[in-house]
Design a protein that fits this description.
It is built from 10 helices and 13 strands. It is an alpha/beta fold. Strands 5-4-1-8-9-10-11-12-13 form a 9-stranded mixed sheet, with helices on both faces. Helix 3 runs parallel beside helix 4 and helix 6 packs across helix 7. The chain starts with a strand and ends with a helix.
């Protein structure tokens, strides 16, 4: 079994500053660092860290960031044969300013991610046979996401869609192509037009998403837990109690772990528990990809939670 991720690969350029600057203002920062990111790459690393063969399909630029991003994926165990180097453009970057209160301001330059298209879908098609799931997000052109979902559906491969960043109007056919959709509360509210802030409202949003043709709707509520609605049932998985220090990539950890569990033949309910556990663990470490849990960490955490009667 293998997991395939079709999506974005970014370099995050992070500046920490006491406060965010106003228009036209210059402020002094306290720290700067770069970190591999992009929702696609994060989800690929999340799956690979759990010990499952994972393939990334996407693009990086012909610059030093592109080389670093590929090397980072490979170091995490991700197969990058499906990653195209686009010499004519830069790698995708996110320029992030973070103040002392944790508020941030982000500028995303798609770069090579914006060039993902038909030829990338053709590379994807060669990898789909035998895959346990295809993970999709929305940081690449929507037409490429739809084409990738169609290819997976034709190959009989499960499609797991993370609708982030959420558009106000998702193509109707994409709902019908998604076996599982996994918005957080903000994304669920944007997609459905319904308020989402607790278990009850998340359930209503999940039902609305299913009515648009999605097989399974999973709404992630962060520290409140996860609501899941299928054709047969609905259920709620409480969040695991942890000391969170950084919520970056927690949702990506969730999707990667859930895909691995489902691809391994586990039930949907168990897969959602895996997702919730991976997301919780990811919040206990700083950074996106560096904070994603390993298989050993997951096993130990689930065993501990089971001993405390929380699984």
């Amino acid at each position: 079994m293998k997991i395939i991720v079709f999506g974005s690969i970014n370099m995050d350029l992070v500046a920490k500053t006491p406060r965010l600057p106003r228009p036209g203002e210059t402020v002094s920062g306290s720290e700067f660092f770069t970190a591999p990111g992009g929702k696609g790459a994060n989800q690929a690393v999340a799956a690979a860290r759990l010990g499952v063969p994972t393939y990334m399909v996407g693009r990086v630029g012909g610059d030093s960031f592109g080389q670093e991003l590929q090397a980072s994926l490979q170091a995490a165990g991700v197969n990058t044969e499906g990653v195209l180097v686009e010499d004519s453009t830069s790698s995708g970057v996110a320029v992030i300013a973070v103040d002392n209160k944790g508020e941030n301001s982000i500028i995303v330059i798609p770069g090579a991610n914006g060039q993902v298209g038909e030829s990338d879908v053709e590379r994807l098609k060669q990898m789909l046979p035998g895959a346990g799931g295809l993970l999709l997000q929305l940081e690449i052109p929507l037409n490429a996401v739809v084409a990738a979902a169609k290819a997976a559906r034709s190959a009989g491969v499960r499609v797991i869609l993370d609708p982030a960043p959420a558009p106000t109007d998702l193509p109707p056919e994409l709902y019908q192509l998604a076996d599982i959709i996994t918005p957080n509360e903000t994304e669920a509210a944007m997609l459905t037009g319904l308020p989402v802030n607790d278990q009850e409202t998340a359930l209503a949003a999940a039902v609305a998403l299913r009515q648009r043709g999605v097989g399974v709707a999973v709404v992630k509520l962060g520290a409140l837990g996860v609501v899941c609605v299928t054709a047969e049932e609905s259920f709620f998985i409480p969040a695991f109690p942890v000391d969170a220090v950084d919520t970056v990539a927690a949702g990506d950890a969730f999707n990667g772990a859930m895909a691995v569990a489902l691809g391994s033949g586990l039930s949907l309910r168990v897969a959602v528990v895996w997702g919730a556990a991976a997301g919780a663990l990811a919040t206990t470490q700083p950074g996106a990809q560096p904070g994603l849990p390993t298989g050993a960490a997951m096993d130990a955490f689930l065993a501990e939670m089971g001993a405390r009667g929380l699984v």
